[in-house]
Structures are given as structure tokens and as C-alpha cells.
Amino acid sequence: MIRENMGGFRNALFLILTFCAVGFGWYNSSRISHAYQEVKGTVNYRSVAVRGDASKESDVVAGLVEGDEVTIIDEKKGEDGQLWYAIITKNSTKGYVRSDLIRKGKAISGSAGSSSSSSTLSSQLSGESINGSGGTIKGRSVRVRSTASTTGEMVFALKEGDVVTISDSVTGSDAKKWYKVLYTYNGTTKSGYIRSDLVTITSKPTVSTVEGSQGEKGKNGIIKGRGVRIRTFGSTSADVRCTLDSGTKIAVMGTSNDEDNQVWYEIAFVYGGSAQRGYVRGDLVSLGDEESSPPVKEEENPTSHQRLGAVKGTNVNVREEPVNGTFICKLSTGHTVKITEEKQGQDGNIWYYITFTYSNATYSGWMRSDFVVVEENATTPSNEEQEGEDTLLGKEGIVKGISVRVRESAVNGSVLCQVSTGHSVKIEGEMNGSDGYLWYQIILELNGEEKKGFIRSDYVNVKDTSLPEGDQDFETTLQEQGFPETYKNALRNLHSVYPGWKFKGVHTGLDWNDVVKAESAVGKNLVYYNSPASWKSTDEKAYNWTANAWYGFDGSTWVSASTEAVQFYLDPRNFLDDSGIFQFETLEYEDYHKEEGVSNLLAATFMRGNYTDTDGEERSYASTFMEAGKATSVNPYHLAARCYQEQGLNGSASSSGNVGGLEKIFNYYNIGAYPLGRQSAVVTGLIYASGTDENYLRPWNSRYRSIMGGAKYVGERYVKKGQNTLYFQKFNVVNKENGLYSHQYMTNLQAASAEAAKMKRAYSNLEGTDLVFRIPIYNNMPEVPASRPVSSANPNNYLASLSIENYEILPVFSGSVDSYYVTVDNSVSSVNIKGSPVAGTSTVSGLGTVQLKEGANTINIVCKAQNGETKTYTIMITRTRNE
Question: Could you tell me if residue 115 is inside a domain?
């Protein structure tokens, strides 16, 4: 089967999301000459440009993202023949957007060509203060500027989801609304201006947030309780900026109320040696009567307690004594250090005495404190000290993610182990890392051994102990379905969020080791050629050891997968999260499958919107997949995702209808597409598509026939044969009729997990859904889920040459042969052994001049690969005895 070029896919996706792929422009109200029933609309594409006219050549006047609401006030056919909507955005920007990128909603009452909606919208926008609100960034890389202008100097860039505090709203030089925002990273608060359409407001201030309001503003106070979380805005849904302990001094800068009318204080405080601001719940602060300025850092006596830190800066000197001590070495940003002492130097600066690892050895020395970010110690709240927000101490967490690293210390500590989705951990404390993330101090069990370390908090779901661990009915279901204990934690976690989901255990009756061996056969599962070395098989049929090159399968860009990679993707426990789980979703048609879901799935691809077929009919891709799903009783989301997976973001020759000699022939599912002799996979697939078989509507001489006929093929050949999940189509461990481990739709090892992510996009809201998942269970599975291979080190430990100067070794050298011999005269007391490795990344020991004794001399030459694997070549040199 053809596998998509994943590297090209990612690049194409990045370009489309960056340049929006669709063009629009400035709207001119004078062009509307007739009454139009205004309606609400919602953007259904990831990133949309609004243009001044109904043409992709027109200037861009604004940007929208998926989910943004607009008012549609007219429509017009563009020069490209497409229908365009004249719209007004929430920021009162007018322009044009192509109709297939907007989903129409309800008509606006009383509107017919009037401009009242835009004036109402403007008044709504201008009539409410947003100063002090929290906001999140929408956009991949959003620039924050020094002034409210696109010509202003860029202060910093934010990514999608970053949290900011809005301190002001102004009109920029471009006549658009801009927000002045505050953003804290690594202990430093920065400010700048950002266009308002790139920020989603997440919390609204109350009257008490307005400058000049009275009440608690300006009062001093102290924190009550250890490990109290300081957040980016006044809500428990806000990100945690840091934690403060009981007694920490603060100054109240303002107050607000959240959606539950809980009072929050905006506070100023000292953290990590610098002034900070954030939000804390009012009941976690004890206020005094006096008003004062924000607290400042107090002088501290030299201390000897240990703290962790990380270097900030490039080539920072470490010295034997502060200021002018003998130079030891240089460290750069991110290097982890342990601080054991501090004192003031002759230069007036505070210096830290640090211990660190450098070139695999431990060193100590002095570094200026302003080049070190100090990490707060992990907090372990006591019961009597903790008030307000519940402590996490002693709570159980469930890991979410693949091969998540557990470190000796936060951020840059040595990696102790890797764990994946579903692994249980016990939280012993928390701390703020120098990378700006909250880290949990945890205890876990791995391979029967207890380990203690640190893990980033966003890779852990904390169990809510205020709720029952799981309702008894669900626990009974898990038991009845026969899920092993190593499955249950992840499934409980999913159940707590999506209680309507049903998980069915599929007992294959197969031994795990037998399945791994069968699926690891050379050529059965493929990975992209530039994957990490540990993902690629080194079997002699898959890898040319003497040339340090992998053989190509299904084209030169795909190579055979390693056993380690196969184990990882084969192990269901690695994918029991809210994305990976979709490779286990049943592929039968259900009533909850909607055309809107298909549109969501295809929104970023060439299959969004309509197509003109070979018969001149114009059809919608989404409606075609829905029709195919209903006709064949196959999940239409699966059909759309399968064609997306096969054809890629922008389509391929198989769906173009332009291949020479096979014009107007289409194969959207790449059925029968594999290289044969000198014919490419595309050609063989199209030859199959051009054949005659009315059962599958062949020949596929139209896009419609290809999608409909291919859907029936997938349904009859796979779904109705028990291969009714993406996983079972990738790994056939259920369909004995066609032979286990054969009749597998995809050879791309990652196809099922990649297609699962696409399937998830079809659901605009997963909450309240009643989905069914069929999850395989094997006999004799390992206690710990298979780890994802991560090493990129070259595996080659072969020699390219081996010889003895002036002598001939036997047999003739070959990299695969490891034993040789030679006989020399008694007069020869030494020889010079020469050799070189196949891979430039390998090292060789044992070469050079070797002294010989009389009789047999065994010489070992060891070639060590970059990944640490060694191969020993032996030369038996016999020096004749002196008679």
C-alpha cells in the first residue's frame, strides 16, 4: 500500500496553517445593492484570512480561527467562481470569506440589509471594560510589540494557549483594537501590545478590578497555608504561576470575583529573588490594616541549606572564589546546579557556591547569583498548615503521554526512567521549575522497584479524591470485560471525563511474544527512512551492514521497523488517552455520525468543500463520505480519515485524475497500490481502479465512484471481517479467515495512531458522546507497557577494512566474518594492525603495533557503534618458534 510521506505531510500542514491557504480582503459596503437576511456564522476552518473583496488576490484585512463567530451580511460570487460571504467580525472588521469556510447559523431577527447589527456589535464591544481580564493566545506564533502597531518592535512571541493579563485596550495605528498585555516567564514579567483578535478573553473583571476602586487594594498581608497556588488570573482554571508558603509577605494590588463569586486578590510578592504578580484566593490571605508598597526582597544572611537551580546565560564562568577566583569552567543556560552556600562578593553581588556535573565528573565552585534561576523546593504541606485549596500531597496521579521522562531533579536532572499513559504515581510535593512549569515530586513503581523523582505536572492527571474512584457499575464492567490491571487506571481516567464511553475487551487468545515476533517480520511494518535509528530494523534483510544503509520497502523512503518500535505501537496501553483511544473506536456506522463531523475532519485538506466530478456534477466531499458510510454501514469519519491518511493534505497523483494513460481514474483509498517491478505504487493502484467490478463500482472513473466503491471494499474486506477498528486493520490479530498478521491495510507502523488523531477532529465536542471502543488484550503481556525507542545513535559496529601491514590474513576480510589467522617468522617480534569502521560514528580499539610472543597470539580488535554495541574481530597470529 502507498504510505504518505509524513515529513512532507508535516511541512505541508505547517505551510498551510502559516499562510492560511485561503485568501480574502476588504469589504466595500457600497457593493451591496439589495436587502439580505443577515445570519450568524461560525468559522469551520483552522485559520482564515478575511479579504477586502471576493478574491484571493485581495488584501488581507483580518484573521479568524476555527470557532470564531461572524455576522454574514451579504454574499457574492467571486472571480474564481466560488461563493463568498460578506461578513462583519466581532471587532467590527468588514470583509469577505469564502462560503465553504463559514458554517451558517440562525438568521438575525429584524435584519434585512440594514447595518444595525454592526452598530450593535460595536456598542457591545465598546461598552465593557476588559482591563484586568485574563486571556489566552490563539495563534501558533503571535508577536507582542512595543507599540500598538504592526511596525512596532517585537518584544517577544507567544504560542497558542499562553496565558496573559490584559491591562489596557487601545486603538492602534492601523485603526484596530490592541490589548496591552502582561506575561510572566521564568520569573520575569514582560509587557507589550497584541492585536485583540489574537486573544481570547477567559475571565472578566468585576467593578472592584477597575483602577481607583477601594476595599482591600493596597493592603499588606501574608499567605495562609503551605504550597498555596498563585495563578495567572483569578480562577481555579487558570495556570499555576508558582506556589507560596505560609507567612510569605504580599501586597494586594486589586480584587476580582470568579464565576462562583469567589473573591480573588491580585497580589505583588517576591519570588526567586525578583518582584512578581499573580492571583490568589482571598481566603488564603491574612490581611493587615496598614497600606504599603509591594514587598521587596529582604537582606538574607549567608545560608548553607541546599537548593536546586539552573544556569541562565551563555558561557557563564565558574570560579574557585567569588569575583576573581581561578577559572574552573563555563556553563550555559539550562545546566542544573545545586546551591549549598551564598555570600556577598567584593563586587557587591551575591555569589552562589554550586555543585554540578560537567563532562561526567562532579565539580564545585562559585557563580554570580544573577546567572542562576533558583528553583523553589518541593513543598510537602502538613494537614494543619494547609487551608483553602486542597493539597496534592499523597494524591494519586495517572501519567498521560508517551515515554514521559522522570528526572532526578526538576527540568534538567538526570533521567531515571520513562513511563507512559496509565502509569500510576504518588505525588509527594510540587515545585516551580526554571523552565516556567510546575513539577511534581513523585514516587512510582517500575519493574518491581520503587523510584522517586520529578515529572512535569502537565503530564499527570491528578485523581480527584473528592469523587469516588469509579462507580461500581464501571468497575464491574472492567472486571466483566477482563481488562488486566495495567489497563484499568487509564480507562478509569477516560471514564471520569467521558462517562458515556463504552470499553469492550477483545481477548485475542494470542501470546504477546508470538504477536511481536510475527509483526516484526522484515517488511511487514515500515517507518519513514529518516526516523530515529532505534526505530529501524537491523536484520540483515533490512539493513546493509557493510554499507551502513537501510534497504527501501514500498519505495525508497520507507524501511523496515525495529522490534522495539513494533512493540511500542502494538501495545494498546500506550494509547489509552483521549486521542490514541480513537484507533480502537468501532468502525461501524452510528446515528451520532454527522456531516458536520466529516467537514471538521477534512477542514485543513484538499477535500474541504465541494468538488466538480468528471460528469460535471458538483458535490460536497463531506456529503459523499456520509452517503458512503450510510450505504456500507461503515463509520464515515473512518472513511474520510482513511482517504486523508492515504492522500495527504494536498492530495496525490492517485486522486488527481491526471496520470498519463490513466486519465480520469481515481483511487482515493489506494486499494491495490503497491510497487510492482518498474511500476510505481500509484500506477498499480490506478490500474486496479481502472478494472471492471460492478460490486465495487469499478472502474473508478469519477471521484464519487472511487469514494463510494472504495468504501464498500473497506467495509466488506475489513470492517465486516472483524477488522473493525483502525488498530485491527493495522495489526490483524482477529481475522483468521484471511490469515493472522496478513491482510493488513497499512504497512506504515504509525498509521493507526496518526489516523486516530484525525478521527478525533471529527467530534467538535466529545462530552456527552456514547462511543464504543474495542481494545485488544493478549496473553503474557509484560507488566510495564513497551517503551518508545528514542535513540538516534548509529547501530553499525562493522569494520570496513582489517589488515596486517606486509602480511596477508586469511580468510579474505569481510565485515561479517570475525575470525582470521596468519603465520609469521620467528624473526618478526611485532606487527602493525590497520583497520577502519564502516560508520564514521564508530570507534575502533586494538589497532596499531602489537608485540608478539613465540607461538599463538590472540589479538582482539573491537569496533564500538555509536549506540554502544560492540563487535569483536579476532586475529590469531602464530609466530614460529626458533628451532
Answer: yes
Closest CA relative to residue 576, chosen from 438, 691, 484: 484
Rg over alpha carbons for the chain, rounded to the nearest Å, is: 33
Residue 94 shares a structural domain with residue 192: no
Mean pLDDT of 184-206: 67
Residue 610 grid coordinates: 465541494
Residue 452 forms beta bridges with which residues?
Answer: 443
DSSP3 helix / strand / coil % (the chain, rounded to 5): 20, 35, 45
Mean of pLDDT over the chain: 79
Angstrom distance (rounded) from CA 440 to CA 417: 15
Answer for the pair 371, 354: CB distance below 8 angstroms, yes or no.
no
Q: The domain that contains 23 carries what CATH number?
A: 2.30.30.40
CA distance to 8, 71, 542, per residue, from 561 (Å): 20, 51, 9
Q: Which domain holds residue 148?
A: 134-203
What is the domain count for the chain? 7
For cell 544573577, the residue is: 370
Residue 670 and residue 624 share a domain: yes
- Other C-beta atoms closer than 10 Å to the C-beta of 272 total 18
Residues 213, 119 share a domain: no
Q: Phi/psi of residue 87, each to 5°?
A: -130, 160
Confidence of residue 152 (pLDDT cuts 50, 70, 90): low
Q: Is residue 778 part of a domain?
A: no
- What is the per-residue pLDDT for 464? 54
Cell of 698: 469499478
* Angle at the Cα of 657 from the Cα atoms of 654 and 663, rounded to 5 degrees: 115
For 492-530, write each residue's pLDDT tens digit. Answer: 888 888 888 999 999 999 999 999 999 999 999 999 888
Q: What dihedral angle (degrees, nearest 10) is formed by the CA atoms of 273, 278, 284, 288?
A: 70
Residue 829 sits in a domain whose CATH number is 2.60.40
Confidence band for 776, pLDDT divided at 50, 70 and 90: very high
- Coil/strand/helix, residue 817: coil
Q: How far is CA 266 from the centre of its chain?
A: 33
Q: Is residue 711 part of a domain?
A: yes
Q: Examine the domain organization and report whether 365 and 406 are in the same domain.
A: no
Q: Distance (Å, rounded) from C-alpha 389 to C-alpha 310?
A: 29
Q: CB of 158 within 8 A of CB of 128?
A: no
Query: Is residue 296's pLDDT more than 90?
Result: no
Strand partners, 135: 164, 201
Q: What confidence tens digit (pLDDT) does each residue in 17-60 have?
A: 333 333 333 333 333 334 567 888 887 665 567 788 888 777 66
As given in the structure block, the three cell numbers for residue 448 are 518491581
pTM check: above 0.85: no
Q: Is residue 662 domain-shared with residue 758, that is, in the same domain?
A: yes
Instruction: Tell whether 743 is covered by a domain.
Output: no
Residue pair 64/95 in contact (Cβ under 8 Å)? The answer is no
What pLDDT is attached to residue 417?
A: 86
